[in-house]
Specification:
With 110 residues, the chain is of the alpha+beta class. The protein has two domains: 5-72, Orthogonal Bundle (Arc Repressor Mutant, subunit A); 74-102. The protein has helices at 5-9, 12-23, 28-32, 39-51, 74-103; strands spanning 26-27, 55-60, 63-68. The chain has a three-stranded antiparallel beta sheet with strand order 1-3-2. One of its GO terms (molecular function) is DNA-binding transcription factor activity. This is ArsR family transcriptional regulator.
Amino acid sequence: MRRDVFQAIADPTRREIIHLLAAQPMNLNAVAENFDISRPAVSKHIRILTECGLVVIRQQGRERFCHAELKTLKQVSEWTDQYRAFWNKKLDALGAFLEKEEQAPRKKKK
């Protein structure tokens, strides 16, 4: 089953695993040592990350090393870019409005 990358990053533990593996490849035991959850729970998180393409596991001798595949996050970046453009446009309009209000002569109240 191929999972959605958004499912993977929705969980804070999986985001932390991605963060750890972005710095360096690690074996499953080394990843598990960074969390206060069981090794099987970490393995489940790794499996989800693997299913959505954010982590690749490579066999090196007797060890299995997890590598982050950060290019998969491009899908998230592209999705958020459309909203970034929307909000930048809105904030630019607000800035222009506020600037116009500052420059307008003040009306006296009677």
